[in-house]
């Protein structure tokens, strides 16, 4: 995932919030905006199932909103979308068995892409090295790519881990 992709997702979210904030919150009025939002998510590499879950849950919650006369509709919609996104990201429907998934992808001769996102100091780099080690022990060929633009040394640290492990 690149920074550019996150910028595009941010624009898609802002566009959605802008459109919903300036329309009636009826199902009929919101449905085409949600469809457009779903397409924007998919165009920005959000899995179809995830995009569908986000838009379905958003539609359900929008239908339950009653905006009072002087309430800020934009703020209400922003909070609603934020809560839906957090719930979708934090509460996956199924537990991912990473090693089984890696084996499945190997049999399908497809790459397994894993993205690590988190705050500074949460152990992403070390975890990446540990997972690369486990995958290598399984006979796979992990490739590590760094894209940290914030913490100086993160890329070098990951490079050192990959050299020690003998992975690309």
Question: What can you tell me about this protein's structure?
Answer:
With 168 residues, the chain is mainly α. The protein has two domains: 3-90, SRP54, nucleotide-binding domain (Four Helix Bundle (Hemerythrin (Met), subunit A), Up-down Bundle), CATH 1.20.120.140; 98-165, no CATH class. The protein has seven helices and no strands. It has helices at residues 3-21, 27-43, 48-63, 73-90, 98-107, 124-137, 154-165. Helix 1 (3-21) packs antiparallel against helix 2 and helix 1 (3-21) crosses helix 4 (73-90). The radius of gyration is 20 Å and the shape is elongated. The relative contact order is 0.09. The model has no long low-confidence stretch (mean pLDDT 80).
In short:
The protein has 168 residues and is an all-alpha fold. The chain has helices spanning 3-21, 27-43, 48-63, 73-90, 98-107, 124-137, 154-165. The model has no long low-confidence stretch (mean pLDDT 80).
The Rg value, from CA coordinates, equals 20 Å
The total domain count is 2
Largest sheet: none
Residues in helices, as a percent range: 55-70%
Q: Can you name the CATH architecture of the largest domain?
A: Up-down Bundle
> What is the element string, with H for helices and E for strands?
HHHHHHH
What's the total number of strands? 0
């Amino acid at each position: 995932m690149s920074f550019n992709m996150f910028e595009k997702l941010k624009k898609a979210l802002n566009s959605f919030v802008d459109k919903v904030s300036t329309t009636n919150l009826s199902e009929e009025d919101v449905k085409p905006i949600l469809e457009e939002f779903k397409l924007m998510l998919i165009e920005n590499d959000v899995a179809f199932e995830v995009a569908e879950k986000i838009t379905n849950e958003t539609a359900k919650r929008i239908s339950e909103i009653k905006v009072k006369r002087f309430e800020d509709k934009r703020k209400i919609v922003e909070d609603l979308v934020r809560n839906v996104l957090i719930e979708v990201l934090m509460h996956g429907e199924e537990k991912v068995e990473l090693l089984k998934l890696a084996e499945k992808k190997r049999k399908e001769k497809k790459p397994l892409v894993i993205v690590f996102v988190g705050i500074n100091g949460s152990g992403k780099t070390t975890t990446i090295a540990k997972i690369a080690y486990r995958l290598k022990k399984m006979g796979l060929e992990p490739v590590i790519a760094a894209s940290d633009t914030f913490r100086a040394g993160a890329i070098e640290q990951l490079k050192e881990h990959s050299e020690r492990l003998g992975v690309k």
